[in-house]
Amino acid sequence: GTTPYPDPSDPSAFPTAIDTQEGAGGNDSSSTAGTLTIGETTYRTIYPIGDEDWLSVNLNAGTQYEFTVDNVSYNGVPWLQLFEGDGTTIVTYAGGDDLISQWGYFSFNPRVTFTPSASGTYYVKVSDQAGGVASYTLSSRVFSDTDGDDFSPHYDCDETNINAFPWAVETEDDTIDQSCSGTDWPVTAAEDIYEPDDSFNTAGSLPMLKGDPWDIIHRSEVYAETHTIDSGDVDYFKITVPANSAYEIMEVESAGTPIDSNLYDADKVLQGFSEGVADSFDPPRNIPTIIHWLNNSDSDTATDFYLEVFADADAPAGTGAYVIGVSDGGTDVDGDGYFTRAQGAGWDCDDGDFDINPSKAEAAPDDGIDSNCNGDDAT
Question: Which pLDDT band, with edges at 50, 70 and 90, does 213 fall under?
């Protein structure tokens, strides 16, 4: 195989420029497509707004292939599509593979598997469904699944165990990582190592998530900080949001144990409530949920927030486990209501100018200023 294009030190970094593989043609159509080699992993950006990444790939008839997008930047919504050799006809997927072509296994991390009936050139296209910008890694491989759980080794942490795959139900404290989170979920009847954290004065801290919060399943450093909760326990966290900024809190609960939370401001005044929802999957899965938006955009100084986590009143007897972290939503220094890491077309490309944001019209064509943040200095 080919040597993968080296990822930058932070593959989930929010993009600030086009990637180095755009080339003279811009690879934004099938006629100017770059080349993808099966087994290769490349780092790319969807930048500026409206950018599309097209790559041609040679596939053999009767071989099942898997294409995946991972390490998505905060609030990126990449869309992965495959096209026939004419560059316009979307391929016909086998079975139900087309049903997860947009969202993959992990929401905003697309995955497609495809078995071509004819050998030849096909095209891979990655764009942003929300009309924004994103960074990501694109990889491809011949699909394999030794243990028959429908997950390739790219996702599966144990190809010898059909009961181990991403989001599988954990058998607590059995030293086996069934859910492929990077750690074995603890016995929920035991106190976690962060106690005492049952008051505002003893509040703990939250880890900062890398990139898209919906990609938390890949963030083993977050799962290593698993917390436990029971009907008599309360966990508090203190989150300091920088000036003119916003954070987003993401939480993943153990299967079947809904957890509620309250958000307080620096004066301990209740700001919001989030109710846990028991998942409806069969078998149950550990499902990520965005639970609070911490907005400090109107303040020129850092502001503290407090999060209180407790078991839902309808939760089953005993205890549950959860992991939790925050994502950086960017800044709104110029006060125009648009953030530098906003999803889709709401992205502010110049946070130092109130008159530059997606709601503005172009002041003048070819004046060197992209007034509406669409990546094009034109009306």
Answer: low
